[in-house]
Amino acid sequence: MIRPMIPIVSVLIVLVPVLVLASLAYGDQAVSFGDLVSALTRPAGTNPQMEMIVLDLRLPRVLLALLVGAALAVAGAIAQAVMRNPLAEPGVLGVNAGAALAATILIVALDNAPVHLLPWAGFVGAAAMAAAIYLLSWRNGGTSSLRIILIGIGLSALTGAATTFLTAFGEIGDVQRAMIWLAGSVYHADWPAVQGLALWLVAPLALTWMSSRELDLIRFGDQAARSLGQRVDSIRALMIVLCTLLSGAAVAAAGLIGFIGLVAPHMARRLVGPAHARLIPVSALIGAILVMAADLAGRTVIAPVQLPAGIVTALIGAPFFGYLLWGRRHVAN
Asked: Where are the transmembrane segments (predicted)?
């Protein structure tokens, strides 16, 4: 499995700059190849309008999409290993529902709340939900994947109802702002957001990759992992923290972009196998490619109208989810 990984990763690595260049060149206003090269290499002598389009508007947007996609994909790989469920993704831990409720409260329920608090509200909501689910699933000195999933589904439904209640009775303008955020998009990207997210993701991504062996063990089940010397409850808690740090930061930066955490790890597993030392970096590459491609498609397919990246990923992810369910229809309960 190691030898085929080299050409696969090479293709993925090549796709990343290709998508970056395409995202910089295409949009409401096309940028010629010469203007693009000039803006990237000699910004001082570039047409000021082209410089603004390439460096101030599109480049932060595509880099934010890259980071968000990588974070969501790795978080999905963690969730599928910890839950031992191929249909798991960060939403199972309640991250999406908690972030959505917190953001909706900030926008709809609080008058004149500062806009810069929205990412922090989304992250705090995601972290609070993950913590609540883990604590409520603790029984007899430990947790189980099944309890985490069931409690996550229950609390997600509860917070979803609260979010719906707020949007049903809120001011129209505030509700529209909340819906735009909930749709998931990187249209508002700027350099501080890119730098902040990049710095935030370094440690969780590194720790996840360093924990590849632990993820390989825990996906075989609690008893097997314990027999091999793993402290299952501690590792599960650590993995949930890492998943929350990754997905919570991505949600805080771009809103709810769904299905990347489901699709990317499955694609990576088909390409390089289940070993997490290879699965994690390949999942990150695929996730980055998917979000960048979704954002590019959303900007160009029906231009000048822009579709949020979250809508495009849902159009891809929903059929893929159905495909996974169909493929497992004969699996015993």
From this structure: 59-79, 91-110, 116-136, 148-169, 189-210, 237-263, 275-293, 305-326
281 pLDDT above the threshold of 70: yes
Measured in degrees and rounded to the nearest 5, phi and psi for residue 139 equal -140, 135
Report residue 39: phi and psi, to 5°. -65, -35
Angle at 52 (CA atoms; ends 57, 30), nearest 5 degrees: 75
**Cα separation, 52 vs 39, whole angstroms:** 9
Domain locations in the chain as residue ranges:
2-327
CA–CA distances in Å: residue 104 to residues 18, 210, 222 = 36, 36, 37
Q: Where are the alpha helices (DSSP H) in 211-308?
A: 212-218, 222-227, 232-254, 260-272, 276-300
Q: Residue 14 is encoded by which pair of tokens?
A: 């090549």
The listed CATH number (3.40.50.720, 3.40.50.2300, 1.10.3470.10, 3.10.20.280) that belongs to domain 2-327? 1.10.3470.10
Q: Which tens digits make up the pLDDT trace of 21-42? A: 999 988 878 888 888 888 778 7
Token pair listed for 318: 């929903």
What are the residues facing 142 on neighbouring strands? Answer: 139
Q: Cα(96)–Cα(129) distance, rounded to whole angstroms?
A: 9
DSSP helix/strand/coil, 139: strand
Tokens describing residue 38: 């000039």
CA contacts within 13 A on the Cβ side of 99? 34
Q: How far lies 282's CA from each of 69, 79, 271, in Å? A: 12, 16, 9
The CA distance from 247 to 244, in Å, is 5
Q: Write the DSSP assignment of 20-83 as a string of letters.
A: HHHHHH-SSS---HHHHHHHHH-GGGS-HHHHIIIIIIIHHHHHHHHHHHHHHHHHHHHHHHHH
Across-strand partners of 139?
142
| Chain Cα centroid distance, residue 51 | 29
Dihedral pair phi/psi, residue 142, rounded to 5°: -170, 180
